[in-house]
Structure formats: C-alpha cells, structure tokens
Amino acid sequence: DEIPTVVGIFSAFGLVFSVSLFAWICCQRKSSKSNKTPPYKFVHVLKGVDIYPENLNSKKKFGADDKSESKNKSAMPKNSLHLDLEKRDLNGNFPKTTPKIQSYPGLENSSPKNFAERKKDSVSPDSIKSITSLSSEDKQDKLGTLFFSLEYNFEKKAFVVNIKEARGLPAMDEQSMTSDPYIKMTILPEKKHKVKTRVLRKTLDPAFDETFTFYGIPYSQIQDLTLHFMILSFDRFSRDDVIGEVLIPLSGTELSEGRLLMDREIIKRNVRKSSGRGELLISLCYQSTTNTLTVVVLKARHLPKSDVSGLSDPYVKVNLYHAKKRISKKKTHVKKCTPNAVFNELFVFDIPCEGLDDISIEFLVLDSDRGSRNEVIGQLTLGSSAEGTGGEHWKEICEYPRRQIAKWHMLCDG
Questions:
Q1: Upstream peptide bond of 189 is cis (omega within 30 degrees of 0)
Q2: How far is CA 380 from each of CA 190, 232, 293, rounded to the nearest angstrom?
Q3: Contacts 24+ apart (CB under 8 A), 267-271
C-alpha cells in the first residue's frame, strides 16, 4: 500500500513542476516579444514631434498633435530598421542646435513666420540648378510654389525630407474658392518609399512642416534618386483633384555640408510621363435606345512589378461619373501574380442623362495586398474632355452607337 502512495505523491510533484516550468517559459517569450522594435521603414515627424517606437513605454512621451498624427500615419513597409529618440527639455521641446548650413539667395524674400531659419540655411550654387525647365505655358498657369528641405544624417544613416509649406495654390473648389491641399511624396526610381502629409482645410497657403526620415539609404545612392511631389486637393465626394507636381532629381545635390533649403514652382501634371505603367484593353458600346453604356474590361499588359513579391495581383475598379460626381462603381476579380492579366468582365451602366456629354468613366488598376492598403498601379479616364486615345475612343462610341469598339490605352500614374 505504501508504494502506490509514494508514486502518487511523486507524480503530483512532477505535474506541478512541469506546469510551473511551462508558465515561466511562456512569460519569458511574451516579454521578449514586447521588447522587439516595430518594423517601421521611416519616421514621420509632425510639427516637431518625433515618433521613435522602441523608446516609447506604456506612456506617450511626446506632446503635440497626437490626434492628428494617429489619423495621418502612413502605411509602413515590413522591413525592419533601427531607430532612436532625441532628447527634449522639460517643456517637451527640442534643444536648439546650430547645424552647418549656408545661405540660399532665392529664399531671402520669404516670410519670417514660416521660414525663420532661412537666413541660417544655405545651398551651394552648384547644387541648386533648376531641375525642370518651365515652359511659358506652365509659368502662365501659376500653380504655386513648394518649399522643402533636404538633409542626410550620417550618424543614423538616414535621408531626411521636410515638407515645409506651399504658397499661392489655385482654388480647386469653385463654390468656396479655396482648396483642401495635401502632398504625396515618392522616392524614384524604385518607388519603395511613398508618404503623404495630412490634409489642411480651406487654405491656398498650407504650412505642413512635416518631416519624413528614411533609413537604409546609403549616402552614395542619393545622387541616383529623384523626389516626386504630387500636390492634391482632398474631395470628400469624388476623386481628389490633382493641383500639380514637382520633380527633383538629386544628381549634383551636395548634402554633406548640412541642411539644404529649396523652393520649386509647381507645374502642371505631365500625363505623358506614364510610360512604364502598362496598358489596358477596354471595349465600349453605347446603346442610345436604352440609354446604357456597356463596358468590357478585357486585358492588361506590361504592368509594373510590385515592390516586395516581384509580381502584381491586379484588378480593375470602374467608376462612372456624371458632371464630376461618381454615380456608380464596379470592380473585376483579382488576377494572381501576373503582369499580363486577362479579365474579360462586362459591366452595364445606366446613363442618367440623354447623351454622353457630361459622362466620364475612370479605370483604376490596383495591386491587391491583404497586408496593407491596395496601391494604384495606373489609371485611365475616358470621356469627351479626355486627351489622347481616351478622347478618341469616346468620340467613336458617340458617333457609332450600338457598336462595340475596343482599344488599348496607356495607363497614367495613380
């Protein structure tokens, strides 16, 4: 009788020890995971507020604009990187430093309120050559001026872009005679880094003061990069209006002496720069008797490769507009891992007016991504006011109703 009792006692002690050991191992793994650095690709600074994840504990240590920052965080790629936090004083502000900067004569006439540091900052004459030669037509349009700064942090091996402000933007809202501007920025040619500022409401002179820090870009590669700024106006009820763009090749730009302050005229968006976005084969047929428009999305070819997987998972969104207001939308199925997709999907739209004068149709080719927001590969607009093949195709279906007409179209940047 004693032997089974002893065995039972030892078995109970062994079970308790095993459960305790398992619980301790789980706690250790959980604590180690919580200390890992989040896989951010860049750091976004909004109005002087830094966000460096690995130094933030359970309490937030930065003060201003928490709500606006949480609403406007950019989508982060999945590559890991190392970040660190700069110290602040007791009031939560950054200590003033005196970096090595030179003076740029083109900035002397700027307002002291938004550009107080300009007298200290400078640019070498060789590095401020005009990047885009503006035609006389572009100068007449007067789309405004973009102010920004460039810097390379050798200690952190980071490329820093600060979008300061824009001035003299045109009014995109005809009723209020104002705009709701924001800026998208892309680093070309690989387009791995895409960021955007927050939207500033009802202003033609937006002061963004937002800083984007990109890690993992060697200084030797800066000369091969090009910055592309797209200035847009937010529209709640339809697609955002494109105000213009600024293209900045960094070849010949010297960042070893300190921060570089620059300003560039905003020019009209060049839709012909869309080479490399691929092509879309569309068939249209207008039925004047039933007042319907039949749209067939047939094929896409030569679509660009995605950044991570190497191949896109494309699908097409079709939006029907009446007097710039979207009245209907459709989309195709996703085609997996192919630059040459075959859709063969038909959509029928009821036209709310007689004729196609106020009707336009937009095609957005997107790359499906479960882990993040789907990115626009390219876009195409067909209508009476469309340029190139889009306008020609539309004119043909108006002249020959009840006839199915198919054409290939080059996609523009989304």
A1: yes
A2: 22, 18, 17
A3: 267/132, 267/134, 267/138, 267/141, 267/143, 268/137, 268/138, 268/141, 268/143, 268/244, 269/230, 269/242, 269/244, 269/245, 270/245, 271/387, 271/388, 271/412
List per-residue pLDDT tens for the chain, 414 residues long.
Answer: 667 788 888 888 888 888 888 888 888 776 665 554 444 445 555 544 444 333 334 334 334 444 444 444 444 444 433 444 444 444 445 454 444 444 344 444 444 444 434 433 444 434 333 334 444 444 445 789 999 999 998 888 889 999 999 999 999 887 888 999 999 998 888 777 889 999 999 999 999 999 999 988 888 888 888 899 999 999 876 668 889 999 998 888 888 888 899 999 998 876 544 456 889 999 999 998 899 999 999 999 888 876 545 678 899 999 999 988 999 999 999 998 888 999 999 999 999 888 888 899 999 999 887 666 678 888 999 998 888 888 899 999 999 989 999 999 999 876
Q: Which residue type does 317 have? A: K
| 335 close to 358: Cβ distance less than 8 angstroms | no
CATH of 144-268, one of 2.60.40.1120, 3.50.50.60, 3.30.70.370, 2.60.40.150: 2.60.40.150
Q: Which helix (H) or strand (E) holds 405?
A: strand 405-410
Sketch the domain layout of the chain as residue ranges: 144-268, 278-411
* Cα end-to-end distance, the chain, whole Å: 83
- The two three-digit tokens of residue 98, written as one number: 């005196």
Give the angle 400-402-404 at the CA atoms, nearest 5°: 85
pLDDT reported for residue 39: 44
Which value, in Å, is the radius of gyration of the alpha carbons in the chain? 28
Instruction: Using DSSP bridges, classify how beta strands 314-322 and 181-188 pair: parallel, antiparallel or unpaired.
Output: unpaired
Fold of 278-411: Immunoglobulin-like (2.60.40)
> Whole-angstrom Cα distance, residue 244 to residue 279?
23
Q: What are the tokens at 315?
A: 């699908």
For 178, which DSSP code?
B
User: Which string of b and e fits 344-370 if b means at least 16 CB within 10 Å?
Assistant: ebebebebeeeebebbbbbbbbbbeee
Q: Cα angle vertex 213, ends 239, 86, to 5°? A: 130
Do the two domains 144-268 and 278-411 of this chain adopt the same fold? yes
402 neighbors 285 (Cβ within 8 angstroms): yes
Q: Which has the closest alpha carbon to 233: 282, 180, 190, 276?
A: 180
